[in-house]
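Give me the fold.
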Amino acid sequence: MILSFLKEDYLKQGTKPSQLLISYDIYYEILKGDGAIQSCYKLDKEGKLGIDICGCQVYVVDYLDSPFKWLV
């Protein structure tokens, strides 16, 4: 669910990337109240929507814990 073109290069920047880019749909699902997922992210409720990469609008979320167990 993490945008595939970011999967390798972006996530290899150190062992714990400080930010991830996720799609609007995933961001919305997180905001809908899955506490387990919310515990991994400090969400920007205003949303940094408008970042457009390869035709996809994405949100930026701050990394707090490993997202891989939630976003695979």
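The first helix runs from residue 24 to 31.
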